Amino acid sequence: MARSDLLVELVKAGVSGDQASARQTAEAIAAEERAKKHSGVADRISKALTSAERPGLAGPTRQGGLRVRDGSGGIQRREPHRPLGELFLDRAIRDACLELIEEQHRADVLRAHGIEPRHRLLLVGPPGNGKTSLAESLAYELALPLFVVRYDAVVTSYLGETAQRLRRLFDFVRTEPCVLFFDEFDAIGKERGDLHETGEIKRVVTTLLLQFDDLPSYCVLVGATNHPELLDRATWRRFEMRLELERPSDDTMTEYFAQRLKELPEKSGYTARRLRAAVSPRNFSEAEDFFLDIRRHLALEQGRVTFRTLVTDRVNAWSSQRGRYGSDDRPADLASG
Ligand SMILES: Nc1ncnc2c1ncn2[C@@H]1O[C@H](COP(=O)(O)OP(=O)(O)OP(=O)(O)O)[C@@H](O)[C@H]1O
Ligand SMILES: [Mg+2]
User: Fold this and answer.
1) Which ligand is nearest to the CA of 123?
2) With bands split at pLDDT 50, 70 and 90, how would you rate the model's confidence at 325?
3) What is the model's pTM?
4) What ligand 1 atom has the least distance to the C-alpha of 123?
5) DSSP states of 226-248 as a string?
6) Percent of residues, the chain, with pLDDT higher than 70
7) Which CATH architecture has domain 61-244?
8) How far, in Å, from the CA of 184 to the mean position of ligand 1?
9) pLDDT tens-digit profile of 138-166?
10) Could you tell me which residues come within 8 angstroms of residue 3 by beta carbon, excluding any fewer than 6 positions away?
11) Which of 10, 37, 60, 64 is deepest in the core (most CB within 10 A)?
């Protein structure tokens, strides 16, 4: 049974004809039922909501079952496999993620106090340091599917069409608890004040903000960007949590190397610190590439050289490559592999 205050809210909204409030309250009831594992009731409420007309948001067009299904085309659904514990994260970042996970897991407790769990998170930082991986890990820890927004299926050059597709996408997303991931979020959430942009991008960002406001808290929104300066200020404010995944410190990278060295089949002849200094990766992606490179050569050499020689050769190859491109001047894309 839904909480009495929510039921009273729903009746009030219905009687006064306040559709926005009715919708919000119904979504809160659905979320509460879902948290109590009453997914049958929750699904029926969600379905009733998505098949209702939504003036003010969707215009006069009916948001019927077909339209909802259409919205799924803008999404790539992935089952997450990566636990949070596998990522090397600063303590503050890890703690913030654990807070979000706890709030989501214990949403019913919060809602009993009239508070919604936080569910809008922006990940900022240079390439190759775990923004995409962290979105996957959050989905894994929350036991939710990861819905990756496919810009190729959402963004079109036809006036008004992108905003409409976005609305359909969100209508679809709302039907199920999930982690909704906007990778390279700056591609769509750009600064509205940019003089070079047409009215189209403004309309898209406005739609996006409305949809963000309207997103129920059982849908966790994760945006990722290497270019936070391109984001619209109002968009930036919509995210309740903003986490910076910086380039890892030498100590963190050394821990990463120690872990990877342990997974190698034999002793490499290097300490983690010495190997990290020799390889000098600029981000985790590059470090990961180095160890993959070792494993690839190990497989192909088939015992023709000793393991230590093989590692030394790969270190030398990486150092000379760095010499060629310059350690700090490599384009970020190249550095992130
Ligand atoms: N913090 C981390 N701990 C362990 N591995 C990591 C970490 N960050 C990144 N990696 C590894 O580096 C690779 C690239 O990471 P990821 O794609 O998540 O980075 P990103 O920040 O999304 O980069 P981009 O901005 O280019 O999209 C992944 O395969 C992942 O395994
Ligand atoms: Mg990424």
Assistant:
1) 1
2) low
3) 0.78
4) 21
5) S-GGGB-HHHHHH-SEEEE-PPP
6) 85
7) 3-Layer(aba) Sandwich (3.40)
8) 13
9) 999 999 999 999 988 888 877 678 888 99
10) 29, 32, 111, 112
11) 10
